[in-house]
Structures are given as structure tokens and as C-alpha cells.
């Protein structure tokens, strides 16, 4: 393992020597290339930040709509129950079959929203890690 690490160290030293021995214009060209690459990555990061904010806002809007829809469904289910009780002569044993189905569909939609937000956060973390690594590489060079 020590030999392997020594070999890697020697390779890095050779790379450094090659860069030191390069003519100045080659060094400048490499620096410009790396700066251009960094600028592109920063632009991509800014774009992804804007998209992430947009998706986050949309997620919050959808969650609010889901909550209001759930409230409306509960209200309608109560109204339906009252109507059925009146029609059946106040029979408390009757439970409408539509209500459990509506609640199930609402819960399913809610969990899908939560899953999308979680995958979005993971994507953001991956982009931030990649950006950090690229900045470290540029600083190293």
C-alpha cells in the first residue's frame, strides 16, 4: 500500500514538473481553459439554482392546493354523509364508500409530492458536491 501511494505521489510530481516546464503560453492557455470551464460550471450551477427554486415554489403551491382539496373533500364527504343519513332515516351504520376512496387518492398524491421533493433535494446536493469538487480542482491547478 505504501508503494502504491509512493507511485501515485511520483506521478503527481511528474505532472507538476510537466506543468512547471511548460512554456508560459501553454500555462496561460491551460489557465484560460480552466477559467472558462469554471465559468461554465458556475453558470450551470446558477441555472440549476433558479430551476430548483422554481420547482420548490411549485411544490409548495401544489402542497397548498392538495391541502385545500383535502379540506374540500372532507367537507363534501360530510355533506354526503348527512344527505345519506337523511335519506336512510338517520342510519348511523351507513358509511359512504366514496369517502375512503377520496382520502386514499389524496394521500397517494401527497406521498408522490413528498417523493418528488426528496429526489429534487438529492439532485441539488449532487450538483453542489460536483461544483465544490470542480472548484477544488481549479484551486489545485
From TrEMBL:
Q: What GO cellular component entries does it have?
A: cytoplasm
Mark out the compositionally biased spans (Basic and acidic residues): 1-15
Coiled coil is among the record's keywords = yes
Q: Which UniProt keywords apply?
A: Coiled coil
Q: Which residues cross the membrane?
A: none
Q: Which domain of life is it from?
A: Eukaryota
Q: Where is this region: Disordered?
A: 1-23
One biological process term from GO is: regulation of transcription by RNA polymerase II
Entry protein name = TNIP2 protein
Gene that specifies this protein = Tnip2
